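[Q] Does anyone have a clean structure-token version of this?
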Amino acid sequence: MEAEPTEGVALAMGGTRGQGRPMRITLIRPNMNSDRSTDAMEPLVFAILAALTPDDVDLTLIDERLEPIPYDQPADLVAITVETYNARHSYQIAKRFRQRGVPVVMGGYHPTFLPQEALQYADAVAIGDAENLWGQIVQDTRD
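[A] Here you go.
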């Protein structure tokens, strides 16, 4: 029986950033359906990761409950927070970005408990609390 990964990033990846411009990271909180909300609270993980992101990184926060995902927006990395109830849709989102050559990292409860499943749809999985891993994920993307 293969051991499950412990807390950390399950797979490192190389970035696609061009020289002479800031790295662009898009954080996505998927919705469960196509309905939009007018009163959704911003996920706490967005605030935490934004605070931990270096100043020279261009960060975009997309909460699909409030706005559609801009699939054509340039990005060097897409990070998706995944819950079990939106895992299937999260995997569809990841597929669309990966088809464009954009690396995807997934975090949240679902990928933490099922990292091998999530790795079928992502280039990397953050296992455990993102605040302990985010700096390394950003650095891996730079490299």
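[Q] Thanks! Anything notable?
[A] Strands lie at 8-9, 23-29, 57-63, 77-81, 104-107, 124-127.
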